[in-house]
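A reminder from the course coordinator: this example appears on the midterm review sheet, so study it carefully.

Given structure:
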């Protein structure tokens, strides 16, 4: 399947226009009421929780009746039969209570089930049935959700009916709406950061029912899932699909981009080796700091705006970062015309999509080791390269230096606790909020059992600690910085991080689509949140186009200046 980026743009426009005809509002209300009741019974009714009823099959079997219901009463008659299908399988003697324990005084939020009393959706009879389930509820182990070992973020990957390589990539309408219901209810009851979504989660359900219903093929279905995940504003909400490579391409242009001052700037290249990197830009007649203006004759600004609908991120920095990656995608071997502005003139070049994805930029060109000693006797550690087995040797070689710069504009390799043993005595640095698996919608804090780093044994490094961060700093990288910042004299320099910390939880959807969400809320020990916000920055520094053209790393330069002068 040959598809250039400009053709993809046409598909994006078509996908957006496909939802211009809204589904009948009564039909949407009926389907929304069905999705809510189905999800509520899934987590609250013991027969469903135990897996005694094939609940996904029940959804699909019932969907046509809900779809054809013309009134609220007809809809509620179907909801009553849905309830009875669960109740008929109930065996109170077999209901096993959950063994999960938690401190009730640590509860920070409880589920909002006020929707049960929504008279625009439910008749008094249905409201009574749902209220009875709510009031009779006692914690049960659930067939559809457990917790990952250790971090205890929710594991909903077992909820995988109609998922897998043998399933059709374009499911039937009933199964597409099931996908929406599964996703919506997982987030409703088990996303610890749901309060940060930015609009009522109910409105998302109503908005997406027509979109999932009217998706005309597997591509539009994928686009709709991409849009849905964007509603979370979560940089962990990746989406994987077998058709992703056909829609967006399986290759990348051999350039690396950054979004600065509303401009798309070439800041480096991709290649399989440093030699390849040295020749990549030159072979295209490009230089760092050149502006990318058009791809395939389409303005990059227009492409960015369209792609925003399909890219999910916790904040603007992360969204623009991921848009950069989508801009580069196309079919391996295909060529595309790029319009470039080098500050003096505009010109066109032809580039080819390739599979080589080793990122190289001015920083990794200058500093290609796990650690180095810079001019001025300043230590530098590339946290993206440093291996745990080398931490001891690294710290011994840098221990006598007046300052160490920890560059976390990358993804570290699990070295934070080993490093902190040389920097600090034991000190708390973070706590979590996590869902309670056996109590759908409950969220508890682990503030009474803080995460701790450091070591009370051994001599500690006495020099300055300087940390570098930017939009590439995400998840474990952000958590690593939180530990480094326990040194009260540590200074963090750079720009807003991706704002997605905490272990991820996987959602499996029909059509063999996998997506994720941040399964924990992560907070500094003092209570400051990190989700969407990112980590604390002491000295904001953003690269400039002029600096990029001169081959400078202005964030690192500012760190060196602080190391030498203390300001």
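Designed residues:
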């Amino acid at each position: 399947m040959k598809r250039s980026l400009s053709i993809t743009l046409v598909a994006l426009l078509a996908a957006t226009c496909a939802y211009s005809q809204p589904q009948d509002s009564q039909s949407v209300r009926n389907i929304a009421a069905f999705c809510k009741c189905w999800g509520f019974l899934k987590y609250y009714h013991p027969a469903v929780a135990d897996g005694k009823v094939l609940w996904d099959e029940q959804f699909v079997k019932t969907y046509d009746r809900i779809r054809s219901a013309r009134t609220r009463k007809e809809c509620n008659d179907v909801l009553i039969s849905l309830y009875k299908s669960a109740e008929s399988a109930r065996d109170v003697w077999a209901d096993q209570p959950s063994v999960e324990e938690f401190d009730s005084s640590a509860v920070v939020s409880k589920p909002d089930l006020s929707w049960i009393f929504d008279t625009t959706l439910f008749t008094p009879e249905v409201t009574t049935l749902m209220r009875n389930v709510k009031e009779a509820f006692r914690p049960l182990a659930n067939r559809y959700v457990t917790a990952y070992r250790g971090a205890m973020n929710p594991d909903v990957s077992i909820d995988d009916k109609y998922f897998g390589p043998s399933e059709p990539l374009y499911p039937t309408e009933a199964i597409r709406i099931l996908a929406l219901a599964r996703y919506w209810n997982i987030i409703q009851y088990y996303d610890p950061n749901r309060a940060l979504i930015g609009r009522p989660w109910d409105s998302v359900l109503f908005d997406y029912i027509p979109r999932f219903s009217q998706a005309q093929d597997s591509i539009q279905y994928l686009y709709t899932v991409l849009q849905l995940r964007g509603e979370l504003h979560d940089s962990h909400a990746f989406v994987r699909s077998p058709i992703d490579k056909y829609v967006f391409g399986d290759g990348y242009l051999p350039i690396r981009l950054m979004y600065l001052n509303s401009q798309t700037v070439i800041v480096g290249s991709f290649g399989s080796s440093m030699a390849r990197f040295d020749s990549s830009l030159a072979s295209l007649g490009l230089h760092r700091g050149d502006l990318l203006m058009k791809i395939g004759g389409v303005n990059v600004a227009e492409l960015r705006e369209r792609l925003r609908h399909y890219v999910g991120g916790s904040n603007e920095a992360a969204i623009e970062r991921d848009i950069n990656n989508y801009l580069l995608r196309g079919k391996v071997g295909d060529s595309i015309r790029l319009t470039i502005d080098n500050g003096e003139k505009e010109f066109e070049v032809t580039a080819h999509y390739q599979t080589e994805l080793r990122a190289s930029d001015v920083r990794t060109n200058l500093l290609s080791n796990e650690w180095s000693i810079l001019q001025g006797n300043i230590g530098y550690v590339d946290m993206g390269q440093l291996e745990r087995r080398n931490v001891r040797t690294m710290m011994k070689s840098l221990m006598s230096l007046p300052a160490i710069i920890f560059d976390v504009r990358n993804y570290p390799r699990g070295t934070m606790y080993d490093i902190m043993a040389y920097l600090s005595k034991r000190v708390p640095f973070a706590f979590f909020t996590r869902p309670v698996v056996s109590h759908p919608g409950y969220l508890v804090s682990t503030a009474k059992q803080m995460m701790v780093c450091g070591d009370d044994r051994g001599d500690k490094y006495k020099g300055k600690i300087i940390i570098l961060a930017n939009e590439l700093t995400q998840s474990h990288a952000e958590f690593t910085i939180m530990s480094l910042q326990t040194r009260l004299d540590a200074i963090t320099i750079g720009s807003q991080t991706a704002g997605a910390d905490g272990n991820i939880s996987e959602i499996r959807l029909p059509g063999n689509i996998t997506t994720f969400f941040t399964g924990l809320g992560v907070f500094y020990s003092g209570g400051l949140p990190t989700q969407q916000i990112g980590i604390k920055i002491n000295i904001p520094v953003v690269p400039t186009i002029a600096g990029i053209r001169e081959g400078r790393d202005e964030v690192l330069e500012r760190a060196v200046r602080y190391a030498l002068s203390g300001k």
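Residues 391 and 418 are 7 Å apart (CA to CA). Residues 272-278, 359-366 have pLDDT under 50 and may be disordered.
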